[in-house]
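Intended use. Records like the one below are meant for learning the mapping from a protein sequence to its folded structure. Do not use them to infer anything beyond what is encoded.
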Amino acid sequence: MCTASLLLAGFAAVSAPEWPQKPITVYVGWTAGGSSDVTTRALVLEMEKKLGSKVLVTNIPGANGSIGATQVAKAPPDGYFWFGGAAVHGTWPVLGYSDVSWTDFYAFLDLVMPTTIYVLKNAPWNTLQELIADIKASPKGRFRYGHPGAGSNGEIFGGLLLETAGAAGKARSIPYNGGREAGRYLLSKEIDFASVTMGDLADWAAAGRIRPLVNLFLRETVFEGVRYPPITDVYPELAPYQAINPCYGVYVRRDTPAEIVTKIAEAFVYAIQQEAFLDIVIRERAGILMPRLGRASDEQMARIESARGWALFRLGVAPNDPSEFDVPELHEWSWPPHQRAAALRPWPEAVETIYDRLP
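Structure written out for the chain above:
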């Protein structure tokens, strides 16, 4: 009996090797150089030191990240395929891009970046109010603004801002493949302003090539000596829409084994405390560290679903009514917001404990 037990134990050890045993692949759903790409690469570079395995990043842009995420959702739930980038999963069904949503993943969220309206350094508008006044006084379509793509935070903020200012439809919305590309078209004067993630162009603002007029945030932000005025200075009613600001992180299938999810969480917590990571995402890209795991992560993903989904639908960008997916509006939001959330597989208890111990 003793010999048989030893043989069984040995067989189990061979059958279930300790994870990870091979490189991990991360699909980033946006182009190289943008905030989703840079923040993901900075994070996983530190995570692989803790995991003891290479983490390989591949860019699969398109459909607001849903192409790459859908491939991850269809991959085996063995922890070897992750999605990386902005936490916009809840918008994909509303936009008609994919049936995959945030409820299909565990989200390891590390930071948030406000959404910013940028203009050229020598633009004639010194304030947001001056820009809005010019847009309202000009023929429809005379003004053009660029953003990171259909359904992006930039498109939503630009649309909400114009709607709130009484200038809905007055400026033409131009989608690009990421905020950096939108910035290049701003520099070439093909658009009048860019509505992008702050970190996409913060280095150009610091270099004096462009200027921020407003930030979708509750307080003034200063980065590299440049002042970013908060939206509450002009339109305080837009404050709840901070939830459209991109949160970033990595995401694994929700049916991934608990022990693997816990190891990923341990590596994640290690990574976000490393100076190399903080240098890139905070000191260089103007991110704001707001880590979330467990139930806190699920709640944040659900708020983003409500804020972005309903804004996109009201602005005519999303063809599908969020109520078809039982998504509540922000003023009606509570946890759980719908049956899909109520039926979620919970996070491993070990991960909740890890999150509770975060400083």
